[in-house]
Amino acid sequence: MADDADLDARIARLDLTAKVRLLTGATMFTLRGDDSVGLGEMAFSDGPTGVRGLKFIGGDEVALLPNATLIASAWDEELAHEVGEILADEAARQRIHVVLGPTINLHRSPLGGRLFEAYSEDPLLTGRLAAAYVKGLQGKGIGACLKHLVANEAETERHTVNSVVDEATLRELYLLPFEIAVDDSEPWSIMAAYNDVNGVPATEHDAVNNGIVKGEWGWDGLLMSDWFATKSAGPAANGGLDLVMPGPDGPWGTALVAAVEAGEVAESMVDDHLRRLLRLADRVGALDEPRSWRDDVPSPTDPVRREQLSRIAARGMTVLQNRDVLPLDAGSTVALVGRHAVETVDMGGGSAQVRPPHQVSVAEGLAELFGPRLTVVDGVEVRTRPVPATVTMVVDPRTDERGIRCVAIGADGAVVADTHVPDSMVSFGADDDFPVPPSHARLSARVPGTGRREVGVVGVGAWTVTVAGRTHDVALSLESDDVGEAILRPPGWTTVVDSDGPVEVEAEVDLTHVRFGRFGLVARPAPVPAEDAIASAVAAAAAVDVAVVVVGLTEEQETEAADKSTLALPGAQDALVAAVAAAARRTVVVVNAATPVLMPWLDDVDAVLWAGIPGQEGGHAVAAALLGLVEPAGRLVTSFPTHDGGSPAWRVVPEDGVLAYAEGPFVGYRGHRWGAAPEPAFWFGHGLGYGTWRYGAPEVAVDGEFVSVAVPVENTSGRPSREVVQVYLDPEEDGQPVRLVGWAAHEVPPGRTQEVVVRCDARLWRRWDAVQHAWVRLEGAGRLLVARGLGDIRASIPFTSKSAQKTDAALTR
Ligand code: BGC
To answer: What is the largest CA-CA distance in the chain?
Structure first.
């Protein structure tokens, strides 16, 4: 590794312009090299649940992992480490130096659209899992990037919102996962958020970036901006930002050179940014000799990889309720119901999206295990916006291959490209392969099948769409001024056709006023009225031993760039569950969503399995969990409120540009316990697994500032099971919320007792004193709660500073 003197010698070889040139990206996801200092090009890729590569759309097929909340729900640092290692392999295969993850913002309000990408409402769980993930990645020589620093818990007005957070809450909650991950895993990069923090853009936040992260924590990595987030030259360069992304344009370049020449920014500051960039290059093998890349990594379809992805997903799945019906008896007859059963949602929306080789639906997963004993019934509609067709619904009319034909036309009317696309969408203006930007594009496909089908287009612009010989003029515009909306949430239009055979669709879009975006064709069976779908489901459910209804959210709710307005399941899904529960002998509900949903039918169903957004092997994972082939041993990572508004922090819509974190530290279970919101439907930490547990008397041991709790747990069930012992500290000190201070898990054979030792994390034994601007150790009295989520407390131990000094014999060893 090059030391600072070596890096400084290289920096001294460059003039100011050459230095500044390196501090803005070269393209959307790459950085420039410079031979004169031995710097090679570097490549970055999103993101937390798969390494998409350099292209936003139409890139290579890559492994799609379970989403972050599902991974986190296993409460298992080894598993998070394994995830980091898989991502490192995926990155190496694609020659990517830095993976833009993990996302470690907290689940503040359950309405946050992007929570699926982040771990939890709890800073300790988030920070520790993030550290394990970072170690998995960086242990294999691929850089991690903690994001988004800081107070970026919602998406509404995300480029301009000012998150207003008091100093203690910022430290104790929102900065804490970053602090823990920096402390425990030394991440090589961090991403500064879009939002302002207490009136200062995160990309310019001297107090956070320089004062705390680089100063107090002594972090020596590279701080890059979120994409298009940088608003200034001088203030951002002085405020701790090292690198502007993406490139090649941006607010630095000549403006930063001028700011240095005018004395607004010291050249030593530019040198520090460059030193950090060169250090990153050195760490990821882009300084001097280019790194060697491993090619012997499993492909996304390799059986080894598929087993891993299925197991990781199933491990985090969480049994919320079980009246003696799960695991399912493999000999039963099953009616599987729901749109999410046949089109399982396997990833959230936005920059975390990848192009997986396949997406196994729950219907496919269960069919393998139940064969003819399984009946599948599509459910009610779950989306309001058109989405591009699945590739089975479109055929290139020229080649008869699955996918569409794309003809791009230049300003002079000449065809610049005429290609087959093995997908139903393309992108223009951003990471496309066209030699010149097209002024028009024509997308065409044949939609196979017969009967009523819904077809249409997605993408911003003026369209001329010809469906089965009939032409429609359609103008589609954006709903907001979010720069990413044209890619992340493009608008759409559809029509229904009824035909005895395949339907031809040709759609031409005028791109002359469009900077960039995602464009595609819609094709699917036409929707049926909810009453008809429910009637079919009821008939099927009444005829079998058990009905399994799969409900959930889609990328309309769980996405970057938009928040939710309700936790209710979209469409008539609640009515579907209620009707099936009334007709079926036993009803199991599987929730295919990353974040809390309301369950008005909870008392009427026998079991609820929360399945997260389970990735490419999702259907296999759900099947394994339902049958108990892998124990769904998850514990919730966020509290599920009983009703809309029933969380301590709710609003995500800024008022006059300000999003006030007015609940202070009372977020999630901390706020529920405090009384800031009613008792939740399910607490953070809740999860039944398939075991039952008797807890023995815990013993507390204190060694200096380290506290540990040893608890004997007896598996009273007839099967092996994994228990997660959670320890919370409930301080008496005024204004201090209850908090998770540690957890430990053990797999225990049936009938056996295992002593589980939880080492409490001293970083949670502090409060931030906003007068002294310093951490203060919590010394007063309080209680240690040994719990399976705060709704199921198994022991409550008084804890005083006396016991901390080992004077209370009853509580210490
Ligand atoms: C997201 C980042 C992401 C970046 C690059 C932004 O919109 O907020 O998380 O890494 O895009 O795709």
So the answer is: 88
Q: Tell me, what amino acid is at 652?
A: V
Cα–Cα distance for residue pair 340/361, rounded to 1 Å: 8
Q: Going by DSSP bridges, is the β-strand pair 607-610/586-592 parallel, antiparallel, or unpaired?
A: parallel
C-alpha 229 to ligand 1 mean position (Å): 10
The atom of ligand 1 lying closest to the CA of 488 is 7
Q: Residue 433 pLDDT > 80, yes or no? A: no
Q: Is the CB of 100 under 6 A from ligand 1?
A: yes
Q: Each residue of 379-426: pLDDT tens digit? A: 999 999 999 999 899 999 999 999 999 999 999 999 999 999 999 999
The answer, yes or no, to whether residue 452 has pLDDT greater than 50, is: yes
Which parts of 293-401 fold into alpha helices (H)?
A: 303-316, 339-342, 362-370
Is 235's C-beta closer than 6 angstroms to any atom of ligand 1? no
The partner residues of 376 in beta bridges, in order of sequence, read 336
Backbone angles phi, psi at 418, to 5 degrees: -145, 95
Task: Give the C-alpha separation, 590 to 610, whole Å.
Answer: 6
CA proximity to 549, closest of 525, 575, 523, 527: 575
For 250-253, the CB contacts below 8 A with 24+ separation are: 250/24, 250/25, 252/20, 252/23, 252/24, 253/20, 253/21, 253/24
* CA–CA distance, 180 with 376 (Å, rounded to integer): 46
**Residue 232 pLDDT exceeds 60:** yes
Distances from the Cα of 306 to the Cα of 52, 64, 300, 620, 633, angstroms: 17, 10, 7, 10, 20
Q: Is 52 touching ligand 1 by the criterion CB < 6 Å?
A: no
Whether residue 580 contacts residue 560, with contact meaning beta carbons closer than 8 Å, is answered with no
Query: Is any ligand 1 atom within 6 A of the Cβ of residue 227?
Result: yes
Residue 76 token pair = 């298992």
Q: Which token pair is 68?
A: 């972050």
Residue nearest to atom 4 of ligand 1 (CA): 227
Which residues, in sequence order, are CB contacts of 793 under 8 Å at separation 6+?
785, 786, 787
DSSP state of 499: E
Find out whether 501 and 468 touch, Cβ atoms under 8 Å. no
C-alpha of residue 226 to centroid of ligand 1, in Å: 6
Q: Is the CB of 431 under 6 A from ligand 1?
A: no
Mean of pLDDT over the chain: 95
**Of 157, 351, 427, 518, best ligand 1 pocket probe by most atoms within 8 Å of the beta carbon:** 351
Q: Is the CB of 147 under 6 A from ligand 1?
A: yes
Residue 806 has pLDDT above 60, yes or no: no
Higher pLDDT, 514 or 240: 240
3-state secondary structure 417-430: EEEEECCCEEEECC
Q: What is the pLDDT of residue 482?
A: 73
- pLDDT above 80 (res 597): yes
Distance CA 452, CA 532 (A): 15
pTM of the model: 0.96
Q: Is the pLDDT of residue 812 over 80?
A: no
Does the pLDDT of residue 760 top 80, yes or no? yes
Indicate whether residue 56 lines ligand 1 (CB < 6 A): no
Please tell me the distance between residue 118's alpha carbon and the centre of ligand 1 in angstroms. Answer: 13
Residue 292: is its pLDDT beyond 70? yes
Q: What percent of the chain has pLDDT over 90?
A: 90
Q: Is 46 in the pocket of ligand 1 (CB under 6 A)?
A: yes
What does DSSP say about strands 517-525 and 425-428: parallel, antiparallel, or unpaired? Answer: antiparallel
